[in-house]
# Entry
Amino acid sequence: MRLLSELVAAVRVAHLELEGRYDPDVHDGYFSRFDWQSFSDEEMASCPPVILVVPVEDVMGRELADFSRMLSSHRPIKVMVIKRDAGFEYRVDSAAETGLRFSFQQELGALAVSHRNTFVLQSSGIHPRALFEGLSRGLVRNGPALFYVLSPNDRPELPSYVWAGACLESRAFPEFSYDRQQGEQWGSRFNVESNPHAELEWPVYEMTYEVPDGPSSVPVPFTFADFAALDPHFSGQFLPVPCPFWSDDLVLFSEYLRMPPGEAYSKIPFIWMVDSHGILHKVATTHFLVLFAQERLDFWHFIQDLGGINSYHAERAIERVRKEFAEEKERESAATAEVHAREIERVRETTAREALERLSAVLLDLDLIEAPPAERAIKRTEAALTKETPEPIPAESAVEAEEEVLVTTEAWIETFRCTSCNECTNLNPNCFKYDANKQAYLADVHAASFAQLVMAAEKCPAKCIHPGAPLNPSEPGLEELTKRAAPFNG
# Structure
């Protein structure tokens, strides 16, 4: 890099001199201190990269502090760390049997991200295109880069790519990238989209199995326990459960991890497995596997949050906005209800006032409706009495005569009581009509027969139609019609 710095400085000086812009007072001091840290991105990309290829064991031990200091120096050294297995700590117990020791794993990719200046790619050969593109971007970045690659050795029990795929699917080794040059915002620098079903805790797939009626399928999440079933080191952590012993105490592994401790205490986690004959089995797991799965799930939540998926702060912000929106809608609804209530009260007061005005007009005889024929009959009787002086009549006969005078002899309608039911107007629209308030009045009494007047009085729900006396003495059935009209003429 020192030799390259001299070459790049000479090229820059030549450009300045050719353009006539070289100023010794300014540029001599600058180029005397010029080194690779002053390279532009284009100049750094033109340099041959310095690449260190090491197994993960050579970095995660005592050398981890030196590795961290190298990244902090911002030297453009590209480090490819090869991971051959899942990285779980093995031990040999007193019985000389291979065992497992649970611990929270050190995550080399996360440690490199904490330096902030380092390009980080955690990937595997399962997605060769994504791996190639990540390598291409990291090699030209101005600064250090870590390529943390899962590349397992061949295994006798299953192909290496199957084991690596299961490791990725189970979140044992999730893929992600961190690129500081992607943006100023911290969240814009991460990408976790290459993980299967990145929005979920575990990928979910349809598993096919055989039943007496034929093949069937069931949605099954692929958890860390499913990955462990492929690794011989975890072979002692499973126990098949015969079908007669299946009960509600057996809980699917993914659901068991989400149960509160007090409820999970009395349950047993299991995973689905299919034997070589395609028969489905429930296989119980130990609590030891639960600890491993919870640790891996915790790291996966960390990766999701960095990638902006199921982010705690984003969900809180969404919930806050949702709550504010609901409160605003509630305030708007309350304001609208108040406006409607005021409008209903105004309409009620207006309607009541108008009804009282109409009633007062009727009671005060303000010529809003035609005077009842009974009143005119009384007036005609008084006029006749002034012209002729009749002989005195007995008191009882006088009372009867007065009652006869009060009986209505002409048809009329108590308009203010009309309910606008349309019975009379439908019967004879020429005789019965509505006024401006849609209340009936007699437009032309001669347009209706006495029978129609009686019928209208009988149909009127308000009983406000008074048919009076028949105008045509030759109309048939008058005797019967008069009897029917009597209750409405009183």
User: Anything to note?
Assistant: The longest helix spans residues 312-363. The chain is about 40% helix and 15% strand.
